[in-house]
């Protein structure tokens, strides 16, 4: 059983095969797989190939769906009220198990830089630890109001779903801002291997999860969605682009012109 105090392993199905999400019908691969969650770790890579500084706020939510929104996450109570449950007050706002996310404090990625967030044994490094990057980057949700229980829980069972960005000039002034989702193919025609998982509270978009790996993804419909896995703006005569990507080895955020 998962413990917020000592981060023991989460209960999981018995499996001898690692099955990361791989759906060639829609062109989507990711490193996420609930049955082997205790064996997964991968980097979030941030590459800024522009002359502007970029400030990002990541939004972290539950990575996997157990099939029912009942505030019991794979057998673990997450709404408090009993000795065997965790009071994840920010994740369960509105009585929801799925759909909420918690922002990090802002993270700065200077012009022409590459940074990586990674910690062995953690899906989503939410605390500073010995495995953090040399510059000490991690997804600090406690600094923005999350509880220590939430930071520990999401470190093992979390996923970044989108980033709010702010592009800054040499004087620290904002020249553009917006939000980009972690990549999932826009207008994807999903097969029977995907199931409905609720609504994302911030974007209003539909959540779907893959039936085998249990990974939750936010759908992008280019007709009805307000946010995409990419964005762009024009500054000083240049077009700047923010693009997210995902594959079986990691999640990537690129700022280019």
Describe this structure in words.
With 257 residues, the chain is mainly β. It has one domain. Helix content is 4%, strand content 35%. The protein contains 1 helix and 17 strands. The chain has one helix at residues 148-157, and strands spanning 22-23, 28-29, 44-48, 53-62, 72-73, 76-77, 102-103, 107-109, 113-117, 158-168, 174-181, 194-199, 206-210, 216-218, 230-235, 238-247, 250-256. The chain has a 5-stranded mixed β-sheet with strand order 9-3-17-16-15, with no helix packed on it. The termini are far apart.
The radius of gyration computed from the alpha-carbon positions, rounded to a whole number of angstroms, is 18 Å
Domain count:
1
How much helix, percentage-wise, in residues? under 10%
Strand content: 25-35%
Number of helices: 1
């Amino acid at each position: 059983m998962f413990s917020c105090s000592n981060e023991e392993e989460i209960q999981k199905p018995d499996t001898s095969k690692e099955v990361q999400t791989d759906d060639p019908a829609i062109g989507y691969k990711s490193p996420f797989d609930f049955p082997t969650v205790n064996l997964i770790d991968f980097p979030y890579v941030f590459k800024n190939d522009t002359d502007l500084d970029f400030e990002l706020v990541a939004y972290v939510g539950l990575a996997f769906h157990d099939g029912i929104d009942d505030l019991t996450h794979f057998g673990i109570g997450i709404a408090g009220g009993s000795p065997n449950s965790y009071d994840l007050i920010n994740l369960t706002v509105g009585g929801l198990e799925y759909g909420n996310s918690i922002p990090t404090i802002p993270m700065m990625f200077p012009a022409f830089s590459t940074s990586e967030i990674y910690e062995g044994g953690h899906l989503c490094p939410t605390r500073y630890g010995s495995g953090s990057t040399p510059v000490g980057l991690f997804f600090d949700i406690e600094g923005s109001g999350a509880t220590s229980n939430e930071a520990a829980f999401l470190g093992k069972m979390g996923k970044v779903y989108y980033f709010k960005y702010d592009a800054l000039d040499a004087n620290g002034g904002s020249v553009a801002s917006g939000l980009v989702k972690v990549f999932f193919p826009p207008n994807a025609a999903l097969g029977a291997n995907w199931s409905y998982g609720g609504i994302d509270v911030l974007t209003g978009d539909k959540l779907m999860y893959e039936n085998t790996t249990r990974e939750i993804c936010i759908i992008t419909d280019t007709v009805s969605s307000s946010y995409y896995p990419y964005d762009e703006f024009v500054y000083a005569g240049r077009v700047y682009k923010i693009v997210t990507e995902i594959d079986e080895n990691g999640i990537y955020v690129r700022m280019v012109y």
